[in-house]
Design goal:
- This protein has about 45 residues and is mainly alpha-helical.
- It has one domain.
- About 85% of the residues lie in helices and about 0% in strands.
- Helix 1 packs antiparallel against helix 2.
């Protein structure tokens, strides 16, 4: 696994964790925004 793929996986993981934390805090709109950013980053993992 190369460094670029690892960095994208870390980015996706960070945004998913942030989305869950934001959702648990009650900010539902930001939850969906962070999930969208995570999904956009996940496109680059392949």
């Amino acid at each position: 696994m190369d460094l670029a793929r690892i960095s994208w996986l870390v980015t996706v993981a960070v945004f998913v964790i942030a989305a869950v934390l934001v959702f648990l805090s009650g900010y539902v709109g930001y939850f969906f925004v962070l999930l969208a950013v995570a999904a956009a980053a996940a496109v680059n993992v392949r």
